[in-house]
Amino acid sequence: MARVCMVALTRYETDARVRREAEALVERGDHVDVICLRTSANRPLRSLGGVRLHEVWIPRYRGTSTLTYMAQYTVFFALAAIGVTWLHLRHHYDVVQVHTMPDFIVFTATLAKLLGAKVVLDVHDLVPELYESKFGLSETDRAIRLLMWIERRSVAFANRAIAVHEPHLDALVGHGNPREKFDVLLNAPDPNLFSPRARRPPANASFRLVYHGTIAPRHGLETAVRAVARVRERIGPIEFLVLGVGDGLPGLERLVRELDLGGTVIVPKTVVPLDSLLPLIADADVGVVPILDDGFTKYMLPVKLLEYVALGIPVVCSETETIRAYFDDRMLAFFTPGDDEAMAERLVELHRDAGLRDELALRASAFFEIHSWEVQKRRYYELIDRLAAAPAVRSEPQDWSIVE
User: Fold this and answer.
1) Which of 105, 190, 192, 324 maximizes the CB count within 10 A of its CB?
2) Considering only CA atoms, which of 188, 189, 194, 254 is closest in space to residue 221?
């Protein structure tokens, strides 16, 4: 039995990747603790799916202030570092797995590593590219160079690191990280949660679209809302359910009002736990993945996309480099990122042709013949077992020079 501690600046019940990996370890009998964000200020520490949760209460900031982000990261870092150390003294972990972002929270495991634990850095997102996109910075900006340096130091500190797909790994290597340090584990959904199911008959005649996840400008929801306005004029009743929160929410709500789409675009303004999400999305006619194409999003293989495919829901999707690496025109209804007219045309096409929707869903499911969760889970077990069995070794000295 391996003893594993995870650290993630996220809410456990809504983070599919953290939950999937933690509960996979519990499934085979491992001991797993997770230090994460608390969902509400009043919720006590608890467990979920056999995973012991140690929740930290920090109000989640979703604005555009770099200083506020850093303050939040710093508070979480301090509390998580204390938590990892205290828990390691009690449980003597074999592995501490840190989920980004930010990258530097891997150093919360410093004392645990000195006391013998192996450290895995699970790199969910490319932080330099995200900050370029979010704050309008260039790759030559000092702040972006600093973030790349932090990323390299974080990867160097870990015993192993994980990338979420091959283009993501290529980008990390392009930042100066060694390819041989990484394993690749895709965000394949757990079939126990996400699998094709019988559709309930619709309660009304509306054409039903769904999006779930972060609401931010880079995710292209304003493009989707404008497309829905066009489609409503052509086909009649249509419903677009947007589940999530984020810094793009106020702008999205303004656009819905401007286009008089109240009652057509439904935005509950809440993060839905995975266990409650499925009944809300499983009966959709089409899943919507309208991401823009910039230096960050071009490396995204959205989790929501894979979840729609796993549920057997056809998907209308922006055509980006990474998504094209795994899916073709027979699998997804592609449109040019940011082009609401092109997206509307694809939606009208899908509305008129139920057979096309079924064909897309069936062909897209071929993705899981190669990249199923069972395959990813075996790779994950092998990684954890290699680290847990490896003898403690003295860390190699790091080059802390910030000069490239």
Assistant:
1) 105
2) 254
As a whole number, mean pLDDT of residues 221-247 equals 94
Whole-model pTM?
0.89
Q: Closest by alpha carbon to 224, among 246, 241, 205, 201?
A: 241
Helical residues (DSSP H) of 11-165, grouped into ranges: 16-27, 66-91, 110-114, 127-135, 142-157
- Residue 59's nearest CA partner among 183, 235, 245 is 245
Strand positions, DSSP E, 171-276: 182-184, 207-212, 238-243, 265-266
pLDDT by residue (tens digit) across 163-221?
999 999 999 999 999 999 999 999 999 998 898 876 655 556 689 999 999 999 999 99
CATH number for the domain running over 207-367: 3.40.50.2000
Please name the residue that has the structure tokens 């094209």.
324
Residue 160 near residue 389, CB atoms below 8 Å: no
Q: Which residue has the tokens 């490396």?
A: 299
Strand bridging mode 315-318 / 286-289: parallel
3-188+373-389 against 207-367: fold identical: yes
Q: Which two tokens stand for residue 239?
A: 């419903």
Look at phi and psi of residue 217 and say left if phi exceeds 0, alpha if psi is from -120 to 50, else beta.
alpha
Tell me the residue type at 310. Answer: A
Per DSSP, the three-state class of 18 is helix
The CATH architecture to which 3-188+373-389 belongs is 3-Layer(aba) Sandwich (3.40)
Most confident of 69-73, 222-226, 282-286: 222-226
Beta-bridged to residue 133, according to DSSP, are none
- The 47-48 sheet, strands edge to edge: 47-48, 51-56, 31-37, 3-11, 95-99, 118-122, 160-163, 182-184
Rounded-to-integer distance, Cα 183 and Cα 115, Å: 24
Angle at CA 13, nearest 5°, toward 153 and 32? 60
Q: What is the pLDDT of residues 368-398, one digit of tens each?
A: 999 999 999 999 999 999 999 977 654 455 5
Q: Which residues contact 223 (CB under 8 A, 6 or more apart)?
A: 290, 292, 337, 338, 339, 340, 343
Phi/psi class of residue 366: alpha, beta or left (left: φ > 0; alpha: ψ in -120 to 50)?
A: alpha
- Write down the domain spans for the chain: 3-188+373-389, 207-367
Reading the block at residue 316, the tokens are 């209308």
